[in-house]
From TrEMBL:
Record keywords: Membrane, Transmembrane, Transmembrane helix
Superkingdom as given in the UniProt entry: Bacteria
Protein name: MAPEG family protein
Transmembrane residue ranges: 6-25, 68-95, 115-137
Source organism of this protein record: Cognatiluteimonas sedimenti
Length: 139
């Protein structure tokens, strides 16, 4: 089951790649439509001032916040032989909720819907870490 613990990581990397592609195509498209020279958006402040659709870029950045703790949790689970069914279920739950969060964020972007998906994913992540912590304390 040790290798199975890394499959949720692969899935989250795939989601990050999809959001990256969405960001790339939406940014390039908007820059072409609005005739924005690349140098005019050299900083994040310039980007925010010149481009209007920042959903994918905002979500892409978000995929490097809580997920950092997720990736570390999977490594801890693998290294400490804690790749159990409950750990895998929580890992896949986190990934599923991140997919929902990204779909909302990059799509219709209703803040309360996005927040609920984010909150649920955060709870799944904290539960994952609680399970790992208990396992570490018992070892």
């Amino acid at each position: 089951m040790t290798h199975a613990i890394f499959l949720p990581a692969v899935a989250l990397v795939a989601l990050t790649f999809v959001v990256w592609l969405r960001m790339y195509f939406s940014r390039i498209g908007e820059m072409k439509r609005e005739r924005v020279h690349p140098q005019a958006v050299a900083t994040s402040a310039q980007m925010a001032a010149r481009l209007h659709d920042t959903r994918a870029a905002d979500n892409f950045r978000n995929l490097f916040e809580l997920p950092v703790l997720f990736y570390l949790a999977l490594v801890v689970a693998a290294l400490t032989a804690q790749a159990s069914v409950p750990v895998l279920v929580l890992a896949w739950l986190f990934v599923a909720l991140r997919v929902v969060h990204s779909a909302i964020h990059c799509g219709y972007n209703k803040v309360m819907h996005r927040f609920l998906a984010y909150l649920a994913g955060g709870i799944a992540l904290w539960l994952l870490w609680a399970v790992l912590a208990v396992g570490l304390l018992r070892a």
